[in-house]
Each structure stands twice: as C-alpha cells, then as structure tokens.
Specification:
six-stranded parallel β-sheet, 17% strand, elongated, Rossmann fold, alpha/beta, 12 helices
C-alpha cells in the first residue's frame, strides 16, 4: 500500500512514540509510507532513519491553503491508497485536499466527548463528508464517534494503541528530593491540570489516606500549583506529603519508582497513555470507569477500576495495595504480561494493515 500520513511530532518523544512507531511498523512491513509533519522534530529524524520519506509541512492552522495545496499536489502526482490524518489541524486540511480524488481518507480519534452534530466545527474533522473511516483508540471512543457521524458507521473501528515492553526499561528515579525513602509507599498521578483529569478527586482521596504515615502522593504535570488545587492541598490532611513536581522530563522514571499510579479522570479519556506506560513499567494503576481504560484493566488483576468522582473508592483501592505488597508484585507482573500479549505495538500495526486493506477493497 501507498500511505500518506499527516501528523504532528512537536510533542515529547514519549507521548509520540506509540503512534509514531505504528507508522514505522507499517514501513517495516513493506508499505510505502510518506509523512507530512514537523520536519525538524526528533521523531521526524527517526522516520528518516527508518527510510520513510518525511516532508516538512504540518499545518499551523485548521485551514491552511499552503498545506491543502501540498497534500493535493502529492495526491495528484503520485498514487496513494490511504490518507491518514491524526489531529484537529491535519484533518481539515487533508479532508479538503482529498475532495474529488480516488483515495480513502481516514481520521484518528483519541478522546471521547466534544464531537456534536450541532457544532459547525465538527464538520471540519470527523463529520466532514469526505471522511471514509475513523480509527478510534478504544471502544468508548468508537461508540461516541459512531453516535454522531452521519454515514459509514461500519468504517468506525477500534484499534487499541499498542506499546512495547522494550520501551519501558527506565531505572527508577531517586525520590529522596521529595523526602521519600525506600520504606515509603508512593502514589503518583501524572497528568496536566485540566478539569476532566479529576485531580481534585485524587487530592480529596488523600484525606482518606492521611492515617498512613509513610504514604506520599506525587502530582506530576503542569498547572497543579494553581487554584483550585492549591487550596485543596493546603487544606488536606496529608498536605505535607503531597508533592508537586511540575512538568518533568523524567516522568517515566518517577512512574517506575512509584508503587501505584492513579488516573482519576472524570471525563474525556480515550485510552490513558500514563496508564499504559505504568503497566509497561509494572506499576499497577487505579483508574476510573470513564473512557477506554476499563477495556484494558482487569479489575483486581492488573489494577483497579473505580467509579468517577469517588475519592473514597480511590483511597480504598490504594489502601488495599498498601496493605498487600504481594498483590502489588503480582499485579506488576500481570500488567507487563498483558501489554506484551494483548496490547503490543506489533499487533496494532497488524490491525492497521487489515483495516486499510479492507477500506481499499470496499
């Protein structure tokens, strides 16, 4: 197959890796892959090193005549079977470029919510009439998209984003900078502060865990030093053991050094990257029922699944893990086994190929 991909690569290496390794995997399977992206990025160089033609031209706006021309000229002058666009800027430009041309146009969707028929901006992305199919990162996302699109509902599919255990070989960070010792029990929450992420629920859970004197909470990400979190921490019963790290390049090392990761989201999740990374590192996760995380976590086996907006339930599961170190160890091994056997990057590439081939035949 000849595949044209328009995707952004101006984020951190770790956040880009699960998606970008899919594209490299497609090329390694013998398919002709061309990628329009940020040409000076670290992953753009990795694409080139992998023999992928990489074009500097990711759009800066949702409608960029320059980008539309670039894509359309490629499609007119060369044969492509598939065009894949992955974000809110690449999708509109690719959609307009594909109008009237014999190529299958596929979009990628990674979150639930925010896609509505009454919203005109939705018709620039997944509701654009030129869209032939949508790849969704979880069943929760697929169900959400399918409920809003007007046509081709059978072409809206779930392909879970795969990972590779070889990515997760980081050494644990030294947590002594936070006053945490080897004898302490560390809970980590690694997200940027947005209302949908449920950080307030995690902080409130601290009130139910304050009696555990050697339990610490690491809050890793931007914005947690602002309101309302600042006041919530100030009034928390374990405030002296809640540590704000801000944005950290060593977030993976902090995750592997922690005993449990909590993803307290209340809405909008597709398939939480921090949860998948934690599983790869063998750090058991406690997640909520929103989004696609519950499709991966076997409750009580590879982690725990709790209701949204229930800090007491979060605290209860953390307490169970604190009290049962053997369970933590068993969950750690099962997490890694599940990533390897069911959610590998190799399997994701295979599913992409099957889907693209089915779309071409349709």
């Amino acid at each position: 197959m000849n595949i044209l991909i328009i995707t952004a690569t101006d984020s951190s290496f770790n956040s880009l890796r699960p998606d970008s390794e899919i594209y490299i995997g497609l090329a390694r399977q013998g398919h002709n892959v061309t990628i329009i992206t940020h040409g000076d990025s670290e992953y753009a160089q990795r694409f080139r090193d992998s023999g992928i033609e990489t074009i500097n031209g990711h759009p800066k706006r949702k409608i960029s005549l320059k980008c539309i021309k670039l894509i359309r000229n490629l499609l007119k002058n060369r044969h492509f079977d598939i065009v894949l666009a992955t974000n809110s800027k690449s999708i509109p430009n690719a959609a307009f470029a594909c109008i009237g041309l014999p190529v299958k146009f596929i979009t990628y969707r990674g979150t639930t919510g925010g896609l509505y028929r009454h919203d005109p901006s939705a018709y620039l992305t997944h509701l654009h009439p030129r869209v032939d199919g949508v790849i969704c990162v979880s069943n929760a996302v697929r169900e959400d998209v399918a409920s809003h699109i007007w046509k081709n509902k059978d072409n809206v599919v779930t392909i879970h984003k795969g990972h590779d255990l070889s990515w997760y070989n980081k050494s644990p960070a030294n947590l002594s900078e936070f006053g945490i010792t080897k004898d302490d029990f560390t809970v980590i929450c690694a997200v940027n502060a947005r209302p949908s992420k449920g950080i307030a629920m995690m902080i409130e859970a601290g009130n139910y865990l304050a009696d555990i004197k050697n339990l610490h909470l690491l809050l890793v990400g931007r914005g947690m030093d602002k309101e309302p979190y600042k006041t919530l921490i100030k009034n928390n019963k374990m405030k002296t053991r809640i540590h704000l790290t801000g944005y950290r390049h060593d977030a993976p090392e902090l995750i592997v050094a922690s005993d449990v990761l909590v993803q307290p989201s209340i809405s909008g999740e597709g398939l939480p990257r921090a949860m998948m990374e934690a599983m790869g590192y063998g750090t058991p996760p406690v997640i909520t029922t929103t989004g696609g995380g519950k499709e991966v976590i076997e409750d009580g086996v590879t982690g725990f699944v709790v209701p949204v907006k229930d800090p007491e339930a979060i605290a209860d599961r953390v307490r169970i893990l604190y009290q049962q170190p053997d369970l933590v160890k068993a969950m750690s091994e099962r997490c890694k086994e599940k990533i390897h056997s069911e959610f590998s990057s190799k399997k994701t590439v295979e599913n992409y190929i099957k889907y693209f081939e089915s779309m071409i035949k349709a």
